[in-house]
Design goal:
Length: 480
């Protein structure tokens, strides 16, 4: 069976621990490769190689770094099919999703930051007759990037690209559940001419190798995307070491539908915002609020469409939903369906595992699920399920839906469907979230700030925000 290796100092290496973990294919439920179960000693080795590489990388001109990152993005593009197959196999997502979203967006992330760094400027502040301040923005040195399993290469590259573009050396850890495309990335970086030790990719468990990255005194900043609980742990651990932190955490996003919306567009987009990637996108709108006068119409149409949604193995061109990422995650999602039922919820459709024919009979497939009849403050409406499960709830007034939308601890994104422009702006201003889409979902402009409020995170990614995160400002004053 294939054994993945860590990418340290420009070479693929066995973990110093000599230990490996099983990696499961969600579509079949079978182990298909082994990944390093790296430990503190592997992190130490990666830090030593990054320390050696830092003077070379940070002193390189922006232009040279940019060229290497452009070549890296082209390298992924050239191996598009291999990356798409790997992402789909590792995660369980339909091939079509990996081909149209995950890998092209990873390519764009590298392209974007490769060129953004050429336009990145720092400030100067003139003091009339006194002197002038100019602000330098310097890379940190070594930074840690830790990413989750739902959009593996896409979110991995969203961190690594700005960190590298700004001149840092990186110690990165993909999720142990979806390591494969990060594994492939090492070779692409080498082929692109990235100096050895600039990008180090370690595999293994969050609680060991992830923890060692967070705790290493020479790693000065941590960019983390994942669950709120893990984020809280990382904040608690890293704060006393005065590390800079960017935490992109969970969501429980409202999707608010007014009667005056463009119905057709709302309906097709709501199917996506509910169930794309098996509902495993932090931005999915898992709480759907519908104005009462169109609630029954919505329910009937939406449920009928959900029932027609094809759940199948990832390579099936008809598959709209593939497998969820792991057995334990499937069980977690099903446990929330049970909790919702116990709280008085009515399962309008779904709520069950799907058994496919061999060789997929042990894969982790779930029917997309729609639940109604729940109070806004029950567990299924307050806690992140992160699977193909949505609740639908009627509302009467703007005030009522705002109260329900803002009632959770989370505040990542929100979607609003209305043709009333005044209401759209008014509500966008009132909803507690870092990202608001009006009559749209998942439209991304890489220049815009990305991140959440409340328990959905601290800090922003994207555009200048990311380059600011990965640099330290240093102000210099010169007297006239
Ligand atoms: P997770 O369990 O928090 O893990 C995220 C990453 O952190 C993984 O690489 C994980 O490694 C690692 N990790 C776990 N414990 C750690 C520790 N003690 N120290 C350092 N690293 C540690 O999250 P997940 O289940 O992979 O991802 C799903 C969550 O991510 C959801 O809550 C979702 O909303 C959130 N998410 C947020 C955004 C956003 O932009 N806000 C985007 C996507 C996903 P292992 O895999 O080895 O445990």
């Amino acid at each position: 069976m294939e054994k993945l290796r860590n990418f340290i100092d420009g070479n693929y290496q066995e973990p110093l621990t000599k230990e490996y973990l099983e990696n499961f294919e969600p579509a079949t439920g079978k182990v298909y490769c082994m990944i390093p179960n790296s430990g503190t000693e592997d992190v130490e080795l990666a830090v030593q190689s990054a320390e050696k590489a830092y003077p070379i990388w940070s002193k390189m001109s922006n232009d040279e770094r940019s060229k290497i990152l452009v070549r890296l993005s082209e390298g992924i593009e050239a191996r598009m099919d291999e990356f798409v197959q790997a992402e789909s196999r590792d995660n369980g997502k339909p091939l079509s999703l990996a081909a149209h979203v995950d890998i092209p967006r990873a390519v764009s992330n590298f392209q974007f930051f490769a060129t953004a760094i050429l336009h990145y400027a720092s400030e100067s502040h003139n003091m009339e007759g006194v002197g002038i301040n100019y602000t330098l923005r310097k890379p940190f040195g070594i930074v840690g990037c830790i990413s989750p399993w739902n959009l593996p290469l896409y979110l991995f590259s969203w961190k690594i690209a700005p960190a590298l573009a700004a001149g840092n050396c990186v110690i990165a850890k993909p999720s142990e559940v979806t390591p494969y495309t990060a594994y492939l990335l090492g070779q692409v970086a080498k082929d692109a001419g990235m100096p050895d030790g600039v990008l180090n990719i370690l595999h293994g468990e969050g609680s060991t190798v992830g923890d060692a990255i967070v705790k290493h005194p020479k790693i000065k900043a941590i960019s983390f995307t994942g669950g709120t609980k893990t984020g809280e742990y990382i904040a608690r651990t890293a704060a006393p070491m005065f590390k800079k932190l960017s935490l992109e955490l969970g969501g429980k996003n409202p999707n608010i539908i007014f009667a005056d919306c463009d119905w057709k567009e709302m309906m097709s987009t709501t199917l996506l915002s509910s169930f794309a990637n098996q509902g495993q996108i932090c931005l999915c709108g898992s709480r759907i609020f519908v104005q009462r006068e169109v609630y029954d119409k919505f329910k009937e149409e939406f449920v009928a469409k959900v029932e027609k949604t094809v759940v199948s193995y990832p390579a099936d061109p008809k598959a709209k939903l593939g497998a969820v990422v792991s057995k334990s995650h499937m069980e977690k999602v099903l446990s929330y369906v049970k909790i919702a039922e116990e709280d008085g919820g009515i399962i309008l459709t779904g709520g069950k595992q799907v058994k496919l024919d061999a060789p997929y009979e042990n894969g982790y497939y779930l029917r997309p699920t729609v639940i109604e009849g729940l109070s806004f403050d029950c567990r299924a409406n307050q806690e992140e399920i992160f699977g193909p499960v949505v609740t639908i709830t009627p509302f009467d007034t703007e005030e009522e839906v705002l109260m329900m939308a803002n009632s959770t601890d989370f505040g990542l994104s929100a979607t609003l469907w209305t043709s009333n422009i005044k209401r759209a702006h008014r509500m966008a201003n009132e909803i507690q979230a870092g990202i608001i889409w009006i009559n749209a979902w998942l439209v991304r402009d890489l220049r815009t700030p990305f991140g959440g409020v409340k328990s959905s995170g601290v800090g922003r990614e994207g555009g200048w925000e990311a380059l600011r995160f990965f640099t330290e400002p240093k102000n210099v004053f010169v007297k006239y």
